[in-house]
Amino acid sequence: MTNPEKKHLDPERAQARRDQVLNAAAICFARSGFHGASMAEISKAAGMSPGHIYNYFDGKDSIIAAFVERDVERIAEKLLRMGQQEDVVQAMLDNVESGVTENLDPKIWSIPLEISAEAARNPKIAALLQDADRRSRQHLRENLVKARLQRGIQTSDAELDGRVEAIIALFEGVSLRSLKHPDLDKKSLIAACHLALKPLLFDE
Q1: Does 77 share its domain with 46?
Q2: Fewer CB atoms < 10 Å away: N or C end of the chain?
């Protein structure tokens, strides 16, 4: 009898299978919500048997954990690229348009919003989100320190923390505005976010 764990000896294949499940779960969560989507529905959308899926995920909570981790990695990669630029302030300002555009895209924000709603009810998911947020805040904080030092600005820890929270709130709020006001003027929003971000980055 074939050992189902053998597939994990091929990391690329295992990751492809995991991605296949996550893509199917994203469709099911968007359509039915976290509680409405069953593992049977996800397995059907993924084209796998439920037993096959359990080789990669213990259940819906572990699928959510994978979504959270994938989002952290996406954000960390963007922040790392910005932090490696010669002028970090300009790099962060240049990212405003793509940041707003991403947060206006339901394909990007719908699952995080669904997970946030679940976190309000599920302490395990809340803990996952809080850990992910801590790591993302740290990456952003490191960039903000670099950006301000490049301008010769020394900043207290408390002030840095406040500015980091404000920057995150600015971009996370875009998704909710998109949900409530889908016809908002994207161009004017990008311009306004650009103006709002400048003093948070380098005003004393």
Answers
A1: no
A2: N
Please indicate, yes or no, whether residues 102 and 43 belong to a single structural domain of this protein. Answer: no
Which band of pLDDT confidence, cut at 50, 70 and 90, is reported for residue 11? confident
Model confidence pLDDT, tens digit, residues 84-103? 999 999 999 999 999 999 99
Q: Following DSSP, what letter does each residue of 110-127 receive, concatenated?
A: HHHHHHHHHHTT-HHHHH
pTM over 0.90: no
Task: Report helix, strand or coil for 119.
Answer: helix
Do 136 and 72 contact (CB within 8 A), yes or no?
yes
In terms of domains, do 25 and 74 share one? no
Same domain, residue pair 107 and 29 = no
Predicted confidence at residue 108, as pLDDT, reads: 86
Among 57, 79, 99, residue at a domain's last position: 57
* Distance (Å, whole) CA 191 – CA 163: 19
Range of the domain at 82: 61-202
List phi, psi (to 5°) of 55: -70, -20
pLDDT of residue 8: 53
Q: Identify the domain boundary among 38, 57, 76.
A: 57
Q: Is 40 helix (H, G, I), strand (E, B) or coil?
A: helix
Q: Are 100 and 193 in contact (CB under 8 A)?
A: yes
E strand segments, 55-188: none
- The owner of tokens 């994203």 is 26
